[in-house]
Write a structure and sequence with these properties.
Layout lengths: L3 E7 L3 H12 L6 E7 L6 H11 L3 E5 L6 H11 L4 E4 L5 E2 L3 H11 L5 E9 L17 E4 L1 H8 L11 E3 H7 L10 H10 L4 E12 L2 H5 L5 H17 L10 H23 L3 H14 L7 H12 L1 H16 L5
Parallel strand pairs: 1-2, 1-4, 2-3, 6-9
Antiparallel strand pairs: 4-8, 5-9, 6-8, 7-9
Length: 330
């Protein structure tokens, strides 16, 4: 029977920790171990974690004397894991019923699959709990060729980490998270996996991700640094590839085009917020990625807004939105 190790990094997420860990322990898949790594929290995390470890022998607890950051904590968990499969589950997220059973079933049936992921519920403060998927219902899955996954994922990271169960042996072969990619480490990791084999996708909700002030405040500062990290993640994954490379192929060109399109959309949003300087910087990034982006309709739309200037556009924007809603402008 397969086994799964779940690493729960926690920094000041004490109010969420019990629900997170219990969502693992109450799974129908019982061959699990949980390691809570407290990264020097200043809240009640240590007491809650100790209580969970005393209540269930499958739970272990480590506390850092000093904060080491999430990348070092992730890599510590990877070094600890020894089960067939493993999962990094942030303490403010939680699993949905049957998620581990579904993930293990797919990976057992397809030994070449390096990791599996599924859909993720987004929960905002005050949101009612949505209906959960049936644990024993039929849920389809798909096996994606590694390059197919990369093409579908594009320049974005569509994999929710809370749903990503990986093959431990391959994780150790590929190595841990990159310290110099603190905001795009997940994206780079999934690219690494995909470049070494197929990826499994479970077509149902596997976990829940909480949106709240604590995790939002840790987001990267500004859209341009986020784009730069995502591009660095792509390049890092390709450089780490031992044999086949994608530079110069149609797929790599499509990824660069995807980055450029994303960048122009973000530049437009920055302009709408009144940040003309950020808009200009993001557009320069887009051109560097894909010079032909200047021929795209969305580029011309941003250039049109720039000619009006932030103040006049701010006054005109509501009217333009209404005209688009009516189908009078595109």
């Amino acid at each position: 029977m397969a086994t799964i190790d779940v690493i729960v990094p926690c920094y000041n997420y004490g109010p969420f920790l019990r629900e997170c860990v219990e969502s693992v322990l109450t799974q129908s898949f019982q061959a699990v171990r949980v390691l809570i790594i407290d990264d020097a929290s200043t809240d009640a995390t240590p007491m809650i974690a100790q209580g969970l470890a005393l209540e269930d022998p499958r739970v272990s607890f480590i506390r850092h004397a000093e904060n080491r950051g999430h990348i070092a904590t992730y890599n510590e968990g990877i070094a600890w894991a020894s089960a067939d499969y493993m999962l990094l589950l942030s303490a403010d997220d939680f699993l949905l019923p049957g998620s581990l059973t579904r993930a293990a079933a797919l990976m057992d049936a397809h030994p070449a699959v390096g990791f599996v992921f599924g859909r993720c519920l987004q929960l905002y403060p005050g949101d009612p709990r949505p209906a959960l998927p049936k644990e024993h219902g039929r849920h389809a899955w798909r096996i994606l060729d590694g390059l197919e996954f990369i093409a579908l994922n594009g320049a974005r990271n569509d994999v929710a980490t809370a749903t990503a169960v990986v093959r431990t042996s391959l994780q150790k072969q590929l190595g841990g998270y990159s310290p110099d990619l603190p905001h795009a480490g997940d994206m780079e990791m999934w690219l690494r996996f995909a470049l070494h084999g197929p990826v499994g996708y479970i077509e149902t909700e596997q976990a829940a991700y909480r949106r709240h002030e604590q995790n939002m405040s840790q987001a990267i500062n500004g859209q341009l640094p986020d784009l730069q990290q995502r591009k660095a993640a792509l390049d890092r994954a390709l450089r780490s590839l031992p044999q086949r490379r994608l530079e110069g192929t149609f797929l790599y060109d499509d990824l660069l085009k995807s980055f450029a399109n994303d960048a122009v959309s973000l530049a437009s949003e920055a302009f709408n917020r009144g940040n003309a300087a950020e808009c200009k910087r993001i557009l320069a990034f887009a051109v560097a990625m894909w010079p032909d982006i200047r021929d795209a309709r969305q580029w011309r739309r941003v250039a049109w807004k720039q000619r009006f200037g932030p103040t006049l556009w701010s006054a005109m924007h509501p009217f333009v939105l209404e005209l688009r809603r009516l189908g009078l402008v595109r």
